[in-house]
Amino acid sequence: MSVIHVDSATGRLRAGALDIACALGRSGVCAPAHKREGDGCTPLGEWPLRGVLLRPGKIDPAAIQLSWRWVREGDGWSDDPADPAYNRPVHLPRPFSAESLLREDDAYDVIVILGHNDAPPVPGQGSAIFLHLSEGRPTAGCIAIDRGDMLKLLPMLAPGDTVEIV
C-alpha cells in the first residue's frame, strides 16, 4: 500500500521516485467539511483510489493494477445533490444533472476515481473528485496531470493505495 502525495502549495504530485507537476481546483484547496458542490475547491485529506475509467482507444490498460473499465456512450457521474445517485456513476440522459464522462477534450481519457464523499455520499459536499489528464488550467476540484506523467503513474498504482492532498 502506497500513499501518493499531493502538495497543494507547490502543485507537485509525488509517488515513489516520480515527482511531477499537477493542477488543482480553480478555487484552491479546502477542508473536506467545507467542500461544496461546484465550488471549484480540491478537498484536502487522504482519499482511497477506487478504480480507473478509460476512454477506448486512448490508453493501453495492460499495466494497470487497479480495477478498470472502458467508458461507454451514456456514462456519466451524478453531480446533482437532489439525485438519489449523487456522486455515483450514472447512465445518461437522466432527469438530474450529471457530468458526461465522454468529454470533447482529452481530460477524461483516463479517470482515476478518488474515494471522496462516497462512503456514503453526502448530498452537496462534492462529487466527481478525480485524478485525470491536464487541460493546462486549474480544475473544477480534481487533480490533473500531463498525459506522459499519467502513463508513468498508472502502472505504479495498486489496490489499497491512497492520494493524500495537503
Automatic annotation (TrEMBL):
Q: Does the keyword Cell wall biogenesis/degradation apply?
A: yes
All residue ranges annotated as the L,D-TPase catalytic domain in the record:
1-166
Tell me which positions the record assigns to the signal sequence. Answer: none
Q: Where is the active site?
A: H132 (proton donor/acceptor), C142 (nucleophile)
Lineage top rank: taxon: Bacteria
Keywords noted in UniProt:
Cell shape, Cell wall biogenesis/degradation, Peptidoglycan synthesis
Question: What is the protein name stated in its UniProt record?
Answer: L,D-transpeptidase family protein
